[in-house]
């Protein structure tokens, strides 16, 4: 199991790419969670036998409209090549309404203006070629942590003969893991910067604008609450507005 403990804040993921030094597994899975206290949820399954290993049928597209869910593919489960094989997962591929982000409650939401490319050596900030449209509600593309489980090894059917010396020659090895995503700022920040988050920890935080505040610019500043907070989108920036103070003037007219 390979677990990336906390990106430091929530990110909106575009893709995950794994390169194996060994042959690719017969079956492995990617999980994510949206906060440090939330449960791990399946993000994507890779398997030569999806039903047997993960209890789901192989699907390249979710047929359930408005409900993103983990899909399973056998595309990257061949034992060949014996080294250097890739497995790539695009977080919106096959999900319903992926071309109708502004109209979809499931795939609509926060803009993420800063980019992250994370590999085994650590994060690389400001990767401008990444793009992912808005998303909200079930937060399908949002994650603070990623976990990969290597569940079943690919073999040349040597397990049928039961020779331990041969079986022990197989192994898992990952040479590179790249995670592409954008900093989650609800469209109210041009980038993420080093700072102190609301938990008092040094971490990446949004450089909030539009009179917003919070790790993800998720609320209006005090005295800028004339209207409810609203995420920015392609339809508008929706800045928080200052409260208007009503003053009553009494004019005394001398008789």
UniProtKB/TrEMBL annotation:
The keyword Nucleotide-binding is annotated on this UniProt entry: no
GO biological process: animal organ morphogenesis; axon guidance; tissue development
The keyword Signal appears for this protein: yes
InterPro entries: Laminin/Netrin_ECM, Laminin_N, LE_dom, LMN_ATRN_NET-like_EGF
Keywords, in A-Z order: Disulfide bond, Glycoprotein, Laminin EGF-like domain, Repeat, Signal
Domain Laminin N-terminal: start-end pairs: 1-182
Disulfide-bonded cysteines: 208-217
GO cellular component, as recorded: basement membrane
Residue stretches making up the Laminin EGF-like domain: 183-242
Domain of life: Eukaryota
Protein name in UniProt: Laminin N-terminal domain-containing protein
Classification lineage: Eukaryota, Metazoa, Ecdysozoa, Arthropoda, Crustacea
């Amino acid at each position: 199991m390979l677990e990336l403990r906390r990106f430091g804040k929530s990110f909106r993921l575009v893709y995950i790419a794994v390169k194996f030094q060994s042959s690719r597994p017969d079956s492995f899975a990617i999980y994510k969670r949206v906060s440090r206290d939330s449960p791990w949820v399946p993000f994507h399954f890779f398997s030569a036998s999806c039903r047997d290993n993960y209890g789901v049928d192989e699907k390249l597209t979710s047929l359930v409209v408005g409900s993103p869910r983990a899909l399973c593919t056998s595309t990257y489960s061949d034992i060949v090549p014996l080294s250097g094989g890739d497995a790539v997962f695009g977080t919106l591929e096959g999900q319903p309404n992926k071309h109708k982000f502004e109209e979809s409650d499931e795939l609509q939401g926060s803009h993420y203006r800063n980019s992250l490319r994370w590999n085994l050596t650590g994060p690389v900030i400001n990767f401008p070629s990444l793009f992912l449209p808005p998303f909200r509600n079930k937060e399908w593309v949002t994650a603070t942590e990623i976990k990969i489980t290597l569940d079943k090894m690919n073999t040349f059917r040597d397990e049928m003969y039961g020779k331990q010396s041969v079986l022990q020659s197989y192994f898992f090895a990952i040479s590179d893991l790249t995670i592409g995503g954008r900093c989650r700022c609800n469209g109210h920040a041009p980038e993420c910067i080093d700072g102190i988050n609301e938990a008092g920890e040094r971490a990446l935080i949004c450089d909030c604008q539009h009179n917003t505040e919070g790790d993800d610019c998720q609320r209006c500043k005090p005295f800028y609450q004339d209207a409810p907070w609203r995420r920015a989108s392609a339809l508008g920036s929706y800045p928080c507005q200052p409260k208007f103070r009503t003053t009553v003037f009494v004019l005394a007219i001398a008789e």
